[in-house]
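Support request, please re-run this one:
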Amino acid sequence: MKTKVSLIRCNSHNSQDVYDAVKACVDLLGGISSIVRSDARVLVKPNLLAAKPPESGIDTHPEVVRAVISLVKEAGGHVQVGDSKCILCLCCHEFCPENAIFIKESIFHRIIRT
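Re-run finished. Output below.
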């Protein structure tokens, strides 16, 4: 089986622009309903690597996560968002593990508020 990939350029982090770009990518793959069934439980796993501003490009941008959450909900899916907790990882070496977790959880909570 070949892996399908779609790519759409998005020139801003405006919520609607990002949503439209993410939806266009998913539509090229057959639409969200071909991926998510109604009532499905879906884990959205952004990459949360460092406590940096979204524009740094280090973490998955919150607007991309928000767009994916919206699409899953539109398909009738139940969304949970998560990433592994950071314990002594290289990206957070300047923080103690508790602070790294706290920072990432703060980013995580900001992302999932829709």
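The chain has three helices and two strands. The chain has one domain: 15-112.
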